[in-house]
Amino acid sequence: MHASSETHSVTDPVPAMSAEDLLKSVIASLDDNKAEDITSIDLAGKTGIADFMVIASGRSQRQVAALTDYVVKGLKALGHKDMIVQGLEQADWVLIDVGDVIVHIFRPEVRSFYNLDKMWATDIEENADDNEGEERVLN
Asked: Which of 13, 60, 91, 117 is most buried, with most CB under 10 Å away?
């Protein structure tokens, strides 16, 4: 039997997914599993920590934990295994670090308290332009 060119051996590296493909997979998983208020933020030019950030809400701790599980299993099924998951024990705010994409899944009250959407959606260059020409006095 002859293996096709699509078949990978155990020693072949899994092709890396692009940041855009990771983003699409994460958003599709969250949307398919009824996450609420899904927001994607392009971090290019704002920080070097990732290319994209996804913020979503679950109605309860149980749904936050389930959404996390769906996202992680979906990415693993696509061959992406390098992930860090934090906050799953409490499931008020779960962070999934997928490398090029960072995912935050919150309960609504916690999301509104931390307001990451507003903080990261603000354009850094816009703020720099607003402060241009102002002199800072340090005491």
From this structure: 91
**Per-residue pLDDT in tens (0 to 9) along the chain, 139 residues:** 444 444 444 444 555 788 999 999 999 999 999 999 999 999 988 888 999 999 999 999 999 999 999 999 999 999 888 899 999 999 999 999 999 999 999 999 999 999 998 887 765 445 444 445 444 444 4
Give the helix/strand (H/E) hosting 132.
none
Distance CA 82, CA 60 (A): 27
Question: In the chain, how many domains are there?
Answer: 1
Q: Residue 3 in 3-state DSSP?
A: coil
List the one residue out of 65, 56, 57, 60 whose CA is nearest residue 23: 56
pTM for the model stands at 0.77
Domain extent, residue 81, equals 19-121
Query: Tokens 């962070």 — which residue?
Result: 95
Confirm whether 24 is domain-assigned.
yes
